[in-house]
Each structure stands twice: as structure tokens, then as C-alpha cells.
Amino acid sequence: ATQIKSVSLIRLSSGTHGTNFSQRFVSLGFEVLNGNTLTIESPVDSNLAPSGYYMLFIVNNKQHIVTRRC
Questions:
Q1: Counting CB atoms within 10 angstroms of each CB, which of 10, 19, 22, 54 has the fewest?
Q2: pTM, whole model, 2 decimals?
Q3: Cα separations (Å) of 48 from 8, 31, 35, 42?
């Protein structure tokens, strides 16, 4: 966890529309605890990340990406 460079959410796009007005990229704050525990801060305002499906991107200092559906 000490090699984490950035954490972000990207909202999944709509498959039924040509223009997707609900696409979002949200950069998240994070903290590494004890070298192996990652604590991620959720957005403080629900308007920044309304409920729905998002991909969580965790990028390390070697630019490797770990993704999870959340």
C-alpha cells in the first residue's frame, strides 16, 4: 500500500444513449496506515458522486492499475 499514487472513481457509462451526461471522474483522498492498509475517503458531497455503479481505480507509482467494480 505504500506505493499507491492515486485513487479515483469513474462512473460507468450508459449503453443506451449517444451522449452520457452522468459520466464522472472523482479523485479520492487516501491514507496509508501501517504500510499495508489503505484508507480511502469518500466524496464529502453526494452531488459529486451520486449513487450508481462506479469503477474504483488504484494506481501505484509504477503506473499499474488495480480495478474493482463497486
A1: 19
A2: 0.75
A3: 12, 20, 29, 10
pLDDT digits 0-9 by tens, 16-68: 666 777 788 999 999 999 888 889 999 989 888 988 889 888 888 877 666 55
Distance of CA 29 to the CA centre of its chain: 10
Pairing state of beta strands 37-40 and 54-60? unpaired
**How many residues comprise the chain?**
70
CA–CA dist 6, 3 (Å, integer) = 10
- 46 to 2, 17, 36: CA distances (angstroms): 29, 24, 29
3-state secondary structure of 18: coil
DSSP label at residue 19: S
Q: Which residue has the cell 449503453?
A: 15
